[in-house]
Design a protein that fits this description.
Helix content is 27%, strand content 17%. The protein contains 16 helices and 21 strands. The longest helix has 17 residues. The structure holds alpha-D-glucopyranose (GLC) and calcium ion.
């Protein structure tokens, strides 16, 4: 299926381009920039929640699950965007937030009223001590998963902000209503849906209320519905869980088509600092096989904090020590920084991680702005520091909007190393040796190698703890990846002659890898 070899590109709608000059990016702004995404080599455009929202949680708190936020445009604008995406041979993905709504959603407003026949649509309790083993996720701001509602005279359950009450999936009406939301966006023409925060649908006494069998059964129902009613569509599980629990979201090929590979992400960053790829290999070994036709989604960064929820305490301490010189860079259980600042603005380390990301088993998910090495503003509220306006051009508006910068939905990056005068699309587009052109050429090289999406995987013993090695292959081709995670040159012996797939260089007895260099090789004929 198309998603097995696709490259995804993630866009917070307000952050990309402001087409109507009010300082807020919008749907029409994305339509206006599709030629850029096509030029870059993007296959599927992922739009973050664009629904009506009080914006307590960046739009993941939704007050109308089938509407469009007025500042972003109309349903018609979304239709035009989808047509234009499809006309270019690309696809589109939307978020479906299944687990919760905003407390401003009419369902919740109705549910809290005494005697309401929607009361049971959310999860209520007289006892805020129920489900004591369920962890709190937003530890910086929430003390409990229960919040008191004055109108209802009861506590309601919420796994994220208190403004995001969890829906009650034990209620059959809720299960049907959510299916209708899925149908609504597929009917409009989305090719893919990301199912947000999917481990938390059900609650059961005596459990941690994550990954419950009931949750999997319901996801299988949605899958069966999609298979019966649609063609060529897919859903991605957002389940930040240990490897064995993540793979459960593929079912036996009858649940989600894709799932994010959370466990492989932190080890990539650890390996850079340790100059030792052992953690990467361990994470890959701990990853069980997945059903045929299923696919991982791999990523380095996204719109959230770089999560450290699922790593050991020692690894978490290591990551904080190495990557958060200022404690304000930490958020919840993670790090609210963009890729380039995490890598100290060092292009060779960026290229190394991209070379690995784009050749690991899975389909890569890129985060807007990373292709030009955008910076962050980590002191902004919550995760807003990694959601600042896209830098299209030099200048005080960064080509993002015609509005007065003071009225932008968020300020532009002010860190002197990353201001729009230094980091922007236009300048890099004009420079053949820019990071932007380099990313583009790597995406195009990957396009010619579908084996990187669908091929088998086997790790190689390079004899050097600092050099990651693996093979991707199918009946026709074989690609060997070697990646030097150390800060000095390394020699890697080869069993047979190899050709560098990108440069054409021929290697006979061994490969010399400069600091942070990677190669994609094929056997020479
Ligand atoms: C997901 C989203 C995150 C959001 C949370 C609650 O983890 O990626 O941005 O805060 O769900 O909806
Ligand atoms: Ca706008």
């Amino acid at each position: 299926m198309w998603f097995e070899t696709a490259t995804f590109y993630e866009i917070p709608v307000h952050a990309f381009f402001d087409a109507n000059g009010d300082g807020i990016g919008d749907i029409a702004g994305i339509t206006a920039k599709l030629d850029y995404l096509q030029w870059l080599g993007v296959d599927c455009v992922w739009l973050l929640p664009f629904y009506p929202s009080p914006m307590v949680d960046g739009g993941y708190d939704i007050s109308d699950l089938t509407g469009v936020r007025a500042e972003f445009g109309t349903l018609e604008d979304v239709g035009v965007l989808l047509d234009e995406i499809h006309r270019r041979g690309m696809r589109a993905m939307a978020d479906v937030i299944v687990n919760h709504t905003s407390d401003q959603h009419p369902w919740f407003q109705e549910a809290r009223r005494p005697g309401s026949d929607k009361r049971d649509w959310y999860v209520w309790s007289e006892d805020p001590g129920r489900y004591p083993d369920a962890r709190v996720i937003f530890i910086d701001t929430q003390e409990s998963n229960w919040a008191w509602d004055e109108v209802a005279g009861a506590y309601y359950w919420h796994r994220f902000y208190a403004e995001q009450p969890d829906l009650n999936f034990d209620n059959p009406e809720v299960r049907e209503a959510v299916k209708d939301v899925v149908r609504f966006w597929l009917d409009l023409g989305f090719d893919a849906l990301r199912l947000d925060a999917i481990p938390y649908l059900y609650e059961r006494d005596g459990t941690i209320c994550e990954n419950l069998p009931e949750t999997h059964a319901y996801l299988k129902e949605i899958r069966a519905m999609i298979d019966a009613e649609y063609e060529d569509r897919m859903m991605v599980a957002e389940a930040n869980q240990p490897p064995a629990d993540v793979v459960a979201y593929f079912g036996d090929g009858d649940e989600c088509h894709m799932a994010y590979h959370f466990p492989i992400m932190p080890p990539l960053f650890m390996a850079l600092k340790r100059e030792d790829v052992g953690d990467i290999l361990k994470a890959l070994e701990a990853t069980p096989p997945i059903p045929s036709g299923a696919q991982w989604g791999v990523f380095l960064r996204n719109h959230d904090e770089l999560t450290l929820e699922m790593v050991t305490e020692a690894d978490r301490a290591f990551m904080y020590a190495e990557y958060t010189p200022d404690p304000a860079m930490r958020k919840n259980v993670g790090i609210r920084r963009r890729l380039m600042p995490l890598l100290d603005n060092d292009r060779s380390r960026f290229e190394l991680l991209y070379g690995v990301l784009l050749s690991l088993p899975g389909s890569p998910f890129l985060y807007y702005g990373d292709e030009i090495g955008m910076g962050d503003e980590y002191l902004l509220n919550d995760r807003d520091g990694v959601r600042t306006p896209m830098q299209w051009e030099a200048g005080e508006r960064a080509g993002f909007s015609e509005a007065d910068p003071a009225s932008f939905y968020l300020p532009l990056v002010t860190d002197p190393a990353y201001i729009s005068d230094l980091v922007n699309v236009a300048d890099q587009h004009a420079q053949a040796d820019s990071l932007l052109h380099w990313v583009r050429s790597l995406l195009h090289a990957r396009r010619l190698l579908p084996v990187l999406g669908t091929g088998q995987f086997e790790s190689l013993d390079t004899g050097d703890r600092a050099v990651l090695g693996y093979r991707r292959w199918n009946e026709d081709v074989e690609v060997t990846v070697l990646a030097n995670f150390s800060t000095v040159t390394r020699m890697v012996p080869l069993a047979a002659h190899q050709v560098d797939l990108r440069s054409g260089a021929i290697y006979r007895a061994d490969v010399e890898l400069a600091a942070h260099q990677f190669v994609w090789l094929e056997p020479s004929r």
